[in-house]
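Whiteboard transcription, Tuesday session. T.W. wrote the structure tokens on the left side:
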């Protein structure tokens, strides 16, 4: 089904993780937005060929669904292992730092991460009053973006034995075909990562991105890790997907947003 034919009407759809109960958060899909055409729905990414005014409206709707009292803050995502800390003077949209994760230890800010098959990861240490959000595509996950986020949270008083983390909607193993060269770079660094690859057609494998990201979090000693098990590729009515748009020959694709904030004072 072509994206332009998909019905994305209705209210903004928010998926939540039990481990983050009590922390304002949400992994949002594509329903409930004002964008049209191939990116119909709640496109929150300026990288798509979309009217910036529509993107702004979509972002406002997303924030209203999760933390209406807070100011949205994001980063210029580059598939890196870089995490930034929100300081006393948050940046503006034009001056976003280049990074793939951000951490905050004060209320009034809602952190936003954009994805379209990559894995969004939301973190919280309730006792320390610190939350984080990371964009974990395979490159960032391989480079250590989750470790960088944990380290930034610890610098603000969090403890990894108290941190909980949820891996949101991303491309699932059944939908994520990779070649042998992709697999080999993982095995060269750690032969145990073979567990995240299942043989497919000749010289190709199916990669478990969610499982790999979750394993990185568990290996780091995170107290509780949950994966939502939602496949962005396989559910066009709920999610945007870069790979699906490519396979359909579409010229553009939208980005969904994942949000987390500290509770309001």
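and on the right, the sequence the group agreed on:
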């Amino acid at each position: 089904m072509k994206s332009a034919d998909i019905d994305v009407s209705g209210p903004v759809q928010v998926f939540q993780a039990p481990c983050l109960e009590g922390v304002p958060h949400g992994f949002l899909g594509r329903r409930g937005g004002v964008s049209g055409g191939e990116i119909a729905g709640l496109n929150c990414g300026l990288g798509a060929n979309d009217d910036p005014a529509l993107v702004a409206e979509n972002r406002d709707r997303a924030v209203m669904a999760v933390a209406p009292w807070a100011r949205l803050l994001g980063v210029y995502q580059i598939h890196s292992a870089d995490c930034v800390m929100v300081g006393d003077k948050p940046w503006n949209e034009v001056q976003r730092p280049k990074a793939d994760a951000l951490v905050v230890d004060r209320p009034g800010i809602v952190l936003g991460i954009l994805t379209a098959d990559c894995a969004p990861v939301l973190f919280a240490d309730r006792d320390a009053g610190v939350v984080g959000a990371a964009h974990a595509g395979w490159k960032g996950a391989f480079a250590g973006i989750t470790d960088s986020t944990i380290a930034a949270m610890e610098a603000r008083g969090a403890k990894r034995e108290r941190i909980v983390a949820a891996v949101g909607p991303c491309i699932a193993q059944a939908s994520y075909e990779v070649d042998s060269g992709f697999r080999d770079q993982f095995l060269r660094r750690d032969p145990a990562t073979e567990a995240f690859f299942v043989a497919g057609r000749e010289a190709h494998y199916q990669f478990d991105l969610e499982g790999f990201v979750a394993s990185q979090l568990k290996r780091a000693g995170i107290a509780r890790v949950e994966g939502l098990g939602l496949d962005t590729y396989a559910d066009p009515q709920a999610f945007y997907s870069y790979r699906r748009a490519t396979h359909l020959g579409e010229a553009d694709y939208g980005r969904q947003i994942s949000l987390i904030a500290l509770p309001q004072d």
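Someone added at the bottom: Helices lie at 52-66, 138-143, 145-154, 180-189, 209-219, 242-247.
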